[in-house]
Write a structure and sequence with these properties.
- It is built from 10 helices and 27 strands.
- The protein is α/β, with parallel strands linked by helices and 467 residues long.
- The chain folds into 3 domains: 90 residues, no CATH class; 297 residues, Peptidase S8/S53 domain (Rossmann fold, 3-Layer(aba) Sandwich); 61 residues, no CATH class.
- The chain has a 7-stranded parallel beta sheet with strand order 11-12-10-14-16-18-19, sandwiched between helices.
- Helix 8 runs parallel beside helix 10.
- The chain is elongated, with a radius of gyration of 24 Å.
Length: 467
């Protein structure tokens, strides 16, 4: 998790009415590219303002523009001006560091060929080390919200560690991610010191849903299967009772926007222990994740509170880092991508599963390691990837998608199908006229999900038959 500290607070002006001045070369629509250095924090604070007229008034009375996004303006201004203008404080955020696949039964799904194939997760963090051998195959591009450019290279290591827990290839066996074939879109919202501001997180959530042009429903939309945010805040921005939806309406609106567009938002509970759950995970629209050890006991640092939904392994997890390095790290930051990876596996089987179906499957199948039902420490319990995936089954959707892969090897065809299609049989036909034309294929391979068939003259048709 990354936390929002109290240093260098910023003022963001949220604007529902905006006028585009230009499209920059980077995939970001700016209303203004004027940037200012951080002034003395004792004199000015950072705010976010929605109303453009109030933002302009503040700038005329001692405020200094940081930048404008498509939805709000970020600025420094005197605290009294920001408060009387109704601006939201731009709260500082940072990362919260402190055999998971077997523990959550992801290895069992991987043995059945569930690997996150064709799925995409947006990771909002310190960036992505796309040069690392474990990570380069999964990189799908991104954006740097800290430096306003198209290169989200990780200059800290936290983001790469988090992403690796989702998607690392397993070149080093202990580093294999939960869903190693999942693609990662990286939004760098934290700097080289692992710090950032809430406004960049909010902006990046909209970017994750709408794509670089910031317009939903256009060709550049990412269509992610989830957003993973290992970011948090420190006191006083921690909440034990209820949710924090009213603390930052802009954040709450952004998370709701993602969910309303079919994108689950997975966020860590923070590392503040009994003090509570931090922003942005305390918002009611998040899937909020706490951390447990390998024995399923709650980690001492894991944030507790009503907002906790589920827990996952988050103690001493091994993953990619800066350079060609690996690291053992702990935190709800590490637990969060474990759950995001599980969602990638679920969406591989059921790409059209709704946010509500994903949440219901995750929560209803969680291993009850705390009190009966939902509690403030473990939420509904520890995530179980295998049970969650199969919990999405319904009478109208009884099985994951069935498909055949066919390759030619000299005079033979090699046919294979996913191992999760247990008991399916392969049939062939020389013509498709009626059901009587289909005959079972005798399979002499040791692997029951692979068949070798001689190539014959004329046409050959194949199908999988459900038992």
């Amino acid at each position: 998790m990354r936390n929002l500290s109290n240093a260098n607070r910023r003022c963001t002006v949220l604007s529902a009415q905006w006028r585009a001045i230009g499209i920059c070369a980077a995939p970001f629509l700016f209303l203004s590219a004027n940037l200012v250095a951080a002034p003395d924090a004792a004199v000015l604070k950072r705010f976010m303002a929605i109303d453009e007229n109030r933002a302009s008034h503040a700038l005329q009375h001692g405020g200094k523009l940081i930048r404008k996004t498509t939805r709000f303006t970020i600025l420094f201004c005197p605290p009294e001006v920001g408060t009387t203008s109704g601006f939201e404080e731009d709260i500082p955020v940072h990362g919260t560091d402190v055999g998971a696949n077997d523990q959550i039964q992801a290895s069992r799904l991987q043995s059945l060929d569930f690997t996150g194939r064709g799925r995409k997760i947006v990771v909002l963090d310190t960036g992505y080390n796309y040069n690392h051998p474990e990570l380069r195959s999964s990189y799908l591009g991104g954006y740097d919200f800290s430096n306003y450019d198209n290169d989200p290279m990780d200059d800290h290591g936290h983001g790469s560690h988090v992403a690796g827990l989702i998607t690392a290839d397993g070149i080093s066996g202990n580093a294999r991610g939960v869903a190693p074939e999942t693609g990662i879109i990286a939004g760098k919202v934290l700097d080289s010191s692992n710090n950032g501001f809430l406004s960049d997180v909010i902006d990046a959530i909209y970017w994750a849903v709408d794509g670089p042009d910031r317009r939903n429903g256009t060709a550049d939309d990412f269509h992610p299967d989830g957003i993973s945010i290992s970011i948090g805040t420190k006191a006083p921005y921690v909440y034990r009772d209820g949710n924090c939806d009213t603390v930052s309406p802009a954040l709450t609106t952004a998370e709701k926007y993602a969910v309303d567009h079919g994108v689950p938002v997975v966020i860590g509970a923070g590392n503040n222990g009994n003090s509570g759950v931090s922003l942005p995970g305390c918002v009611s629209y998040a899937i909020t994740v706490g951390a447990v050890g390998s024995d399923d006991a709650i980690a001492s640092f894991s944030g507790r509170g009503d907002a906790v939904d589920i827990v996952a392994p988050g103690v001493l997890l091994y993953s990619a880092h800066v350079g060609m390095n690996y690291a053992l790290l702990s935190g709800t930051s590490q637990a969060t991508p474990i759950v995001a990876g599980v969602i990638a596996l679920m969406k591989e089987a059921y790409p059209n599963a709704s946010v509500e179906e994903v949440e219901a499957a995750l929560f209803s199948t969680a291993v009850p390691v705390g009190a009966s039902g939902k509690d403030t420490t473990y939420g509904w319990g520890r995530v179980d990837a295998y049970q969650a995936l199969y919990a999405i089954f319904t009478p109208d959707r009884p099985d994951p998608p069935a498909f055949l892969s066919i390759k030619r090897a000299t005079n033979n065809l090699i046919l294979s199908w996913p191992k999760y299609l247990l008991g399916y049989s392969l049939e062939s036909a020389s013509a498709i006229v009626n059901s009587m034309n289909w005959q079972p294929v005798t399979n002499t391979n040791v692997d029951p999900n692979v068949a070798t068939v001689p190539i014959t003259t004329g046409e050959q048709f194949f199908r999988l038959r459900k038992p």
